[in-house]
Amino acid sequence: MTKQQLEKTKKAILDRIDTLDNFAILVSDPDADAIGSGLAMEEILEQKGKKVQLYSSFEIPEYSFLPRSEKFVIKNTADLDFGQFQCLIFLDSSDPTRTLDKIGEQNIRIPKDVFVINIDHHNTSTMFGHLNYVVPRSTSTGELLFDIFGEHIQLTPSIATNLLCAIIGDTNCFKYPTYNYSHTFEVASILIQNGARHDFIVRNSFYSNTKNVIDMNIEALKNISYNKVGDITFTATVVDLKKYGITTSSSRRSFYNYYEIVQSIEGIDFSVRINPLTQGFLKISFRGRTTVVNSIAEHFGGGGHKAAAGGIIKSTPEKFISDLKNYLENAQLEKL
After folding, report:
1. Mean pLDDT score of the chain, rounded to an integer?
2. Where on the phi/psi map is residue 214: left (φ > 0), alpha (ψ -120 to 50), or beta?
3. pLDDT 10s digits, 31-40
4. Which residue among 149, 162, 210, 230 sits deepest, i.e. has the most Cβ atoms within 10 Å of its Cβ?
């Protein structure tokens, strides 16, 4: 979207919110960006005097440290009656099905007379909203919410904290190399000036682990295999989340220590993590070190960002690795 298109869409979103009264907010399978953005959006609407419900299909105990986290209603979005709302706001979701906590094919039923706003930063967005504010070059949906609403709300400490958590989570503490951080750092500075505590967010997001999480990271590191296809070298590991009582929704945060080590290995281009799920499905998660990985994820039916992507496929770990190697033999991969 051009700058002019974004400004037009931004105005249309603000105008639409002003004219409606009853909203539902839905977030993708939760990471810090989805959760922080959802909580900030809920308070923004409440501040404007709107009736609002905030939904997650996933349990989110690992984000209970965030202010107003009790506002989340945990209920699978496939079971919701959206006819009771005038407007649905989807956050950090390239497609509505990303809000579902289900494996396999399932759809969300949205009545034709319900208005849909889609705010996202994935380049795989299906642009499913009546209004789509989609900016792939942005670090996070949290940053986009600041760009849309920052001048039109009272930036409370809780909104500032939740937006900063969204940004920190999706940049891995500003470590991902794929963004121009000049605007992001300006936004982060304003959020900190308005009460967001960077140290509080980082400690609770990255440095609060149970023994089960540490044990899982140790197994993941022990299981690493090194693979080379032509000029591409990647690591792969397989670990069963269920063995450690880790939910799929919390796995991104739980593998922080693993990725910190794997991404520091000289000579690799990317890493892939494989988690067996139920019914023969796998959750696959890519992290790029020197190579863009969202195109790899898209080949397997997933998506994401240049440095971090993934998806859910029906396969076995062995077959997936074989299929990945076959794909890499002829793939033209972009460098980070």
Report:
1. 93
2. alpha
3. 999 999 999 9
4. 162
Per-residue pLDDT, averaged over 22-41, amounts to 95
Confidence of residue 304 (pLDDT cuts 50, 70, 90): confident
Phi first, then psi: what are they for 238, rounded to 5°?
-125, 130
Residues 93 and 128: their CA atoms lie apart, in Å, by 10
Check whether domain 3-206 has CATH 3.90.1640.10, yes or no: yes
Averaged pLDDT for residues 70-92: 95
Residue with tokens 């939904």: 55
Residue 310: its H or E element: strand 308-314
Q: Are strands 308-314 and 303-304 parallel, antiparallel or unpaired?
A: antiparallel
Q: Say yes or no to pLDDT of 104 above 60.
A: no
pTM beyond 0.90: the answer is: no
Q: From CA 119, how far away is CA 125, in angstroms rounded?
A: 10
Tokens of 332: 């033209």
Residue of 331, 259, 262 whose CA lies nearest to 295: 331
Closest CA to 133 of 37, 57, 29, 49: 37
Q: Which of 25, 38, 128 is nearest to 85 (CA)?
A: 25
Common-topology check for domains 3-206 and 211-330 = no
Confidence class for position 106, pLDDT limits 50, 70, 90: low
Helix (H, G, I), strand (E, B) or coil at 5: helix
The CATH class given to the 211-330 domain equals alpha beta
DSSP string of 179-242?
S--HHHHHHHHHHHHTT--HHHHHHHHHS---HHHHHHHHHHHHT-EEEEETTEEEEEEE--GG
Domain boundaries, given as residue ranges, for the chain: 3-206, 211-330
Q: At what angle do helices 157-171 and 182-193 cross, to 10 degrees?
A: 150
